[in-house]
Amino acid sequence: MNEVRNILVGMEIGETSAQIAYYDRKGKEPVSVPIKVGTNLYVFPVQLVKMPGRDEWHFGYEAEYFAKERGGIVCPNPVGTAISGQSVVVDGTEMAPDELLAIFIKESLSLLGVPLASTTIGGICVTCGGMTGNLALTVMKALTRIGFKKEVCFVADLEESFYYYCYSMKPEIRARSMGLIRFSGNEASFSRIHESKSGRSFVVTISDAGQCVLPEEKEERDAAFAEAVGSWTNGVPYSGIFITGEGFGTDWAKESVRALSRAAAHVFEGDNLFVKGACWAVCEQLERHAFKNRVYFGPDHIRSDVGIDVIENGQQQFLPLIAAGTSYYLCETECDIILDGRDDLLVTVRFADSAAHRNEKLMLEGLPDRPPRTTRLHLTLTCPSVSECVLTAEDLGFGELFPATHKTYTMKIGLEREEEIG
Amino acid sequence: MIGYRLSRTGLAKNPFPVTHIGIGLWSVEELCYYICTNPALVDSTLLNYSLTRWLAEEFHLTDIALAVERQIRKDAKSADIVLPLLRGTGYLDARELARFTAQLDSMAAGGVAMRLRMKADALLRNRRYGEAISAYEQAASYAQKYSAPFRAALHHNRGVALTRLLSYEEAYRAFREALSLEDTKERRRTCLLAAGLAKPSEKLILEAEAIGADDEMLHEVRSLLDAASSVNVAMPEDPVRELERIRHDYHTEAGV
User: Fold this and answer.
1) Which pLDDT tens digits describe chain B residue by residue (256 residues)?
2) Are residues A102 and A178 in the same domain?
């Protein structure tokens, strides 16, 4: 790797294996990091070992060696621990799930060969299958524990990483429909990307569109898979189909390859599309912003913008408190506003999939009567679910000029369309 | 109406002390509000390099701090020093900014006595009575060529400050001074009230005769004084603490 400063990193973590990719902007696309230079080995086991009595850790294949040969203590699986949310004891010390995961991630990032990971990495996205709110929050905590600022850390499930991967490809690859085939031994599943213009945005979703169980025998397997491809794609032209996972092989997939070629203009096979998608996610969120009005909606994504109209530097603008396309469990916003002649808080919910919006008003009853521009309100907004957010406003007064009451006002805001205005 | 202004700069870790009114400012918005509502108190005790350092260190408003510093270095007038701050923070819109700078220019163009009076009035509004009294006295010393009503107002306001500091006898003399310069019904009434506070009650009739107050005014003032003396104030839960607070507030307001 030539670039040692400010690279963007993607990391795919599963319960059994992990891999890392980075993007240094000089290249055309992210590059997978081999666990040993000069090899094609990119995937390493999710294993962590601690040397007894010392702050010395080893991960991946190296962990196996230190456990067997050097008396290293095998730690509980860091990802499994993060999923369970339970603290564990390692070498007599209790460790929180984010603490253990942080060590695993930090040790893994040493594969990049950069001296101080948190200062030489401009942004990082961790992608996992089966992402939940708890897991996402644990990953974010682990990343900030390593030293990354919250603003440059991202978490995505595999589907979202796939979205970033697809839409970072050349235009001809995404000219028409795109699909993803995931193999897991004898099982294969098919997901399809949908894009529709709706309101202000192009909304992208990924839905499951079929699955099958394949026989072991090669010819039967080939025939079964070819038939499955035909029924999944069902005459719809695809510009790109991506295949990933263990179980696909060119040694048996003869008819299948022909079926894939009939179904799609481009077919790709590889095991690093999610980790590269994670890299693209960081690049898009922090720097490129090329997706513009395109927004991905997964099952946990908020489908509305929620914000208020404010004056900033003399200009009126819409201040989004939460943005459509954010996972609800990662939605937490805080800001301060100064009231200027109002005794209420007017919040607007803008639906990403239509031009409609809805206003919600929070009355600030009991607020002391102060001159205009002398009341500071601290606003906090969180989302307990994908369909609701909670806004809290706290009166902070105006310093020593007008003391704070610290009175708080709370309002629940539904994020789903009920009535349309405009 | 939008009605909300975004505060990107938040609160300072360390406040900026405002010596004139004895408080600390914790945000850029508070600073701007203080400047806009107390233009007479905007002087070198506020507009100095400590302020620019505070802006740069607490809020990272380096550009604004440098622009203000440039004006301070040039020994510019107050309007020119505060302009980059008010404009850069967007606290005032263009029209409000034009109005405010015109107000500052007009103050600067006014005479010394006028500026001192405005400063004294601002100190009075902010309960800095001791400093207000000094400023009124200074203003009076420059005001010989000003109109009688203007000079009367200086003495009257000085009397108000003295009343707040419970110096009733001195307050009474200040109100008499105001009355001698401008004899109005309102000034007579004020003198009579002050006399009621400063002198024994049996002397009130003599006072009313001396200043030319009629029976109706005397009766009104007597009623007010009686009502004030019959107000029952509940004993605080912690009298010692309350007394300490009163004493502290008094010393602050007196500028001691």
Assistant:
1) 779 999 989 999 999 999 888 899 999 999 999 999 999 999 899 999 999 999 999 999 999 999 999 999 999 988 899 999 999 998 998 889 999 988 888 888 888 999 999 999 999 998 999 999 999 999 999 999 999 999 999 999 999 999 999 999 999 999 999 999 999 999 999 999 999 898 888 888 888 888 888 889 889 888 888 888 777 777 778 888 888 887 877 777 777 6
2) no
Helix (H, G, I), strand (E, B) or coil at B215: helix
User: Which of B5, B7, B26 has the CB atom closest to A399's CB atom?
Assistant: B26
Nearest by CB to residue B6, choosing from A310, A371, A400, is: A310
73-92 in chain B: CB under 8 A from chain A: 89-91
Total structural domains within chain A: 3
CB atoms within 10 A of CB A374: 19
Burial class (CB in 10 A: 0-12, 13-18, 19+), A113: exposed
In this complex, which of A316, A338, A342 lies closest to B7 when CB atoms are compared? A338
| 3-class secondary structure, B179 | helix
Query: In angstroms, what separates the C-alpha of B47 from chain A's closest C-alpha?
Result: 19
Which of B209, B164, B170, B167 lies closest to B188, judged by CA? B209
Question: B153 vs chain A: nearest CA distance in angstroms?
Answer: 27
Instruction: Find where tokens 């360390």 sit.
Output: B14
pLDDT given for residue B199 in this prediction: 86
- Domain end, chosen from A148, A183, A199, is at A148
- Residue B62 C-alpha, separation from nearest chain A C-alpha, in angstroms: 16
3-state secondary structure of A258: helix
Looking at the fold, whether A127 and A233 belong to one and the same domain comes out as no
Q: How many CB atoms are closer than 10 A to CB A22? A: 26
Beta bridge partners of B7: A336
Distance of CA A238 to the CA centre of its chain: 26
Compute the mean pLDDT over every residue in chain A, rounded to the nearest whole number: 91
The ipTM assigned to this model is: 0.81
pTM: 0.79
Residues of A in contact with B25 (CB under 8 A): 399-400
Chain A contact for B93, CB < 8 A? yes
E-assigned strands of A43-130? Answer: 44-45, 48-50, 57-59, 73-74, 88-90, 93-95, 121-128
- Between CA B34 and CA A168 the distance in angstroms is 51
**Is domain B112-229 in CATH 3.40.120.10, yes or no?**
no
**Burial category of A219 from C-beta neighbours within 10 Å (exposed 0-12, middle 13-18, buried 19 and up):** exposed
3-state SS assignment for residue A289: coil
In sequence order, the 6+-apart residues with CB closer than 8 A to the CB of B16 are B24, B25, B31, B50, B51, B54
Residues in A touching B8 (Cβ below 8 Å)? 312
**Does A313 lie in the same domain as A391?**
yes
Whether residue A113 is contained in a domain is answered as yes
For residue B136, what are the CA distances in angstroms to A13, B37, B43, B174, B183?
75, 19, 17, 11, 20
Domain that holds residue A106: 7-148
Residues of A within an 8 Å Cβ radius of B: 308-316, 319, 335-342, 345-346, 371, 373-374, 376, 398-401
Task: Answer yes or no: do A129 and A17 share one domain.
Answer: yes
Q: What is the CATH number of the domain that holds A308?
A: 2.60.34.10
Tell me if A154 is assigned to some domain: no
Q: Which of B6, B7, B30 sits opposite A399 (nearest CB)?
A: B30
- Shared-domain flag, residues A379 and A250: no
Name chain A contacts of B7, Cβ cutoff 8 Å.
335-338, 376
